Recover the amino acids of this structure.
């Protein structure tokens, strides 16, 4: 009997599959090792395949799509409600098989190799920045134990610490000076890694027309533009700019019942890295809007919002607006125009 839908529970070495026919009756339940996956799926007729968006999901999605199958990726939290029994690989594969057929299911865009490469650069850069910040805090804390204060700011580590190490008037011991010097060398290495990766991201940004168009939006620079292009993928996966904003967690979280609407803070769903970049970019726009002598339409809107609410609310509101603008620019193949309001309102 022909297989209509297959759910795959991905793993490192052993994959569990669950296949059903057009009536939903299970006709195949088996385990496949990694080396058997391609051989198995190339022999069966094209069908709908569902997988959770986890490790190696995009690789298998591209590989199975090349064989003619229709592949859909889903967030694991959307698959969990379909698990009927205790957790097992077989139960997970069955749940995935059922979830992928739901008409209201939300799917994750499948990324190509280039998009995955750019996102890998962003993830590694994020890790280096986190490690650099931790190292700076450790150096600042250790120096404070000896009464030596370093001002807040990542740039003061490289400029102030070497002088403090060389200062013979303080009471630092020789072994402690060597310790701090080693930490400082490691800090500089991390800083060099961050700069190198940022140069690679900017190079990709200059080669991408879509990324350059997004960078014209106030509050969106090369880092944010490249991350958005690589994460969104095919903009046709989203019906409107509001869906993009919701996908990024920049919309209110609801707790409504009994016909009473109760809106809370933002949902914070989706990619926290993208959301952080958009909000930080919005903060920069707010900072400059307060200091402009000649205000444009966006700056006036920002200043009025800051007066009514506060800067944090304004930053999230502008980030939401920029997310919707990004969708409009990509969906309609346009360039950003500051006086064109319909771009951000669609």
């Amino acid at each position: 009997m022909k297989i209509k839908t297959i759910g795959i529970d991905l793993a490192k070495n052993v994959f569990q599959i669950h296949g059903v026919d057009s009536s939903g009756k299970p006709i195949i339940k088996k385990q496949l090792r990694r080396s058997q996956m391609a051989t198995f799926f190339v022999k069966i007729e094209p069908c709908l395949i569902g997988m959770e968006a986890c490790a190696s999901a995009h690789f298998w999605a591209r590989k199975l799509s090349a064989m003619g199958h229709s592949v859909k990726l889903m967030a694991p939290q959307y698959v969990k409600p379909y698990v009927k029994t205790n957790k097992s690989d077989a139960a997970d594969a069955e749940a995935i098989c059922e979830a992928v057929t739901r008409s209201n299911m939300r799917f994750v865009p499948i990324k190509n190799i280039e998009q995955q490469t750019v996102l890998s650069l962003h993830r590694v850069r994020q890790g280096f920045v986190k490690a650099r910040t931790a190292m700076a805090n450790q150096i600042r804390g250790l120096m404070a134990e000896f009464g030596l204060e370093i001002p807040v700011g990542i740039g003061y580590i490289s400029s102030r610490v070497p002088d403090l190490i060389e200062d013979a008037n303080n009471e630092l011991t020789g072994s402690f000076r060597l310790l701090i010097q080693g930490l400082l060398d490691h800090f500089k290495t991390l800083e060099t890694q961050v700069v190198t990766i940022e140069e690679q991201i900017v190079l990709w940004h200059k080669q991408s027309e879509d990324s350059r168009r997004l960078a014209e939006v106030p509050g969106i620079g090369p880092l944010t533009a490249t991350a958005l292009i690589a994460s969104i993928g095919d903009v046709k996966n989203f019906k409107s700019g509001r869906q993009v904003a919701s996908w990024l967690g920049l919309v209110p979280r609801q707790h409504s019942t009994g016909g009473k609407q109760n809106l809370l803070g933002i949902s914070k769903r989706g990619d926290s890295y993208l959301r952080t970049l958009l909000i930080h970019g919005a903060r920069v726009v707010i900072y400059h809007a307060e200091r402009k002598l000649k205000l444009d339409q966006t700056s006036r809107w920002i200043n009025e919002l800051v007066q009514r609410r506060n800067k944090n609310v304004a930053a999230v509101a502008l980030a939401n607006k920029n997310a919707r603008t990004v969708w409009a620019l990509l969906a309609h193949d346009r360039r950003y125009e500051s006086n064109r309001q319909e771009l951000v309102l669609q």
Q: What stands out?
A: Residues 5-108 form a domain with the Nucleotidyltransferase; domain 5 fold (CATH 3.30.420.140).
